[in-house]
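FAQ

Q: What does a record look like?
A: Structure on top, sequence underneath. For example:
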């Protein structure tokens, strides 16, 4: 049951993509109800330090398996269709440009999980929650700062 372990949602997306299966409506509703109820002691909007370590590690491991060994694009689309990317963040759930970022990340030999979460405004916290290596956490923090700086320049009257 997904209500007992959120990583089962990711695992379900992996297997559905690998075996070209579709969840029935009842199963999708169970996933969505579980995500709405969020029965675990930590919620995605809370500070990373409050994440049970095993939950963060298991989420990361399942996502890494999905991105390395599966038809990842279909698996992530399944997760998004089911609302399962809410396990990471609402902005990631609502993002429809992740495939392009991940394709570029793979070409540039950047961790695809880092590319998946890079668009979220709280990406450093998500990286910390997932216990990504410090180098990737730093990359995401610096990327966010660069985006903010470029936005300021773009919005500046001097450059219009």
């Amino acid at each position: 049951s997904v209500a007992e372990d959120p990583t089962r949602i990711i695992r379900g997306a992996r297997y559905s993509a690998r075996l070209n299966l579709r969840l029935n409506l009842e199963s999708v509703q169970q996933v969505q109800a579980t995500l709405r109820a969020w029965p675990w002691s930590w919620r995605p909007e809370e500070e990373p330090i409050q994440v049970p370590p095993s939950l963060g590690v298991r989420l990361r491991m399942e996502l890494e398996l999905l991105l390395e060994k599966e038809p990842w694009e279909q698996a992530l689309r399944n997760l998004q269709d089911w609302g399962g990317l809410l396990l990471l963040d609402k902005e990631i759930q609502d993002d429809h440009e992740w495939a392009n970022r991940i394709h570029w990340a793979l070409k540039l030999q950047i961790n695809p999980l880092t590319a998946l979460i890079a668009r979220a405004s709280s990406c450093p916290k998500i990286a910390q929650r997932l216990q990504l290596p410090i180098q990737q956490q730093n990359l995401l923090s610096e990327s966010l700062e660069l985006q903010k700086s470029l936005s300021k320049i773009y919005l500046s009257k001097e450059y219009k």
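Q: Is there anything notable about this one?
A: Residues 18 and 53 are 28 Å apart (CA to CA).
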